[in-house]
Design a protein that fits this description.
Number of strands: 0
Family: Belongs to the PlsY family.
Order of helices and strands: HHHHHHHHHHH
Pfam families: G3P_acyltransf
Number of helices: 11
Largest sheet: none
Number of domains: 1
Distance between the termini: 51 Å
Subcellular location: Cell membrane
Structural class: mainly alpha
Helix content: over 70%
Catalytic activity: an acyl phosphate + sn-glycerol 3-phosphate = a 1-acyl-sn-glycero-3-phosphate + phosphate
Membrane topology: Multi-pass membrane protein
Strand content: under 5%
């Protein structure tokens, strides 16, 4: 019963896309324009960093709220310890699945990066601090967000194993594989030197 509950909550929260709200607000089809990804990066490319930040905040905090809701329900039901941790990680998995494959967008959504940040914030402040720090370090060093994302997932995997053990780590492995698959086109564009750099995204906001 609890597994089904956290799956449903996670998926429904994941389906709430910030890009859909901004698309309606600005009358721009973010999903099918630019690099054709309904996320914060493409929103920034198309509309500037302010709207990109708005999409990112929505996608971040929908994930945080989903996990906080699950934690509240589990605490009220007396489900604690390793069982609660595993259920939280299952919820996190389905938040990302809901974001990447939302019913509201015919199962073709984003790549889950902002939502993962929200997951990290809700799961454990130490994991969040380390993983988001790694994201910023590698993104700023390479000028490619996708490189920072790759190392953020690696950090999340290592810190999850260190703090919570092997079972939650297996869920992070699934999330990492999903992220790599979703970002294959980005990796190809980096090799071709066609990937949008972080610095150019901020220049877009100044136009």
């Amino acid at each position: 019963m609890y597994v089904l509950m956290v799956i449903v909550i996670g998926y429904l929260f994941g389906c709430l896309h910030g890009s859909q709200l901004v698309s309606k607000l600005k009358s721009v089809d973010i999903k099918n324009t630019g690099v054709k990804n309904p996320g914060a990066s493409n929103t920034t490319i198309l509309l500037g960093w302010k709207y990109g930040a708005l999409v990112a905040l929505i996608d971040i905090f929908k994930a945080t709220l989903s996990i906080l809701l699950v934690v509240y329900i589990l605490n009220e039901s007396g489900v604690v310890g390793e069982t609660q941790t595993m259920l939280i990680y299952i919820n996190a998995l389905f938040i990302i699945l809901g974001h990447n494959y939302p019913l509201t967008m015919r199962f073709s959504g984003g790549k889950g990066t902002a939502s993962l940040v929200g997951v990290l914030i809700a799961i454990d402040w130490k994991i969040a601090l380390i993983s988001i720090g790694i994201l910023l370090l590698f993104t700023l060093t390479t000028d490619y967000l996708v490189v920072g994302v790759l190392f953020m997932y690696l950090s999340f995997l290592i810190t999850t194993y260190y703090f919570f053990g092997i079972e939650p780590t297996m869920i992070v492995v699934l999330l990492s594989v999903l992220s790599i698959m979703k970002h294959l086109e980005n990796y190809k564009r980096i090799l071709k030197k066609e990937e949008t750099k972080l610095s150019s995204l901020f220049r877009k906001g100044a136009e």
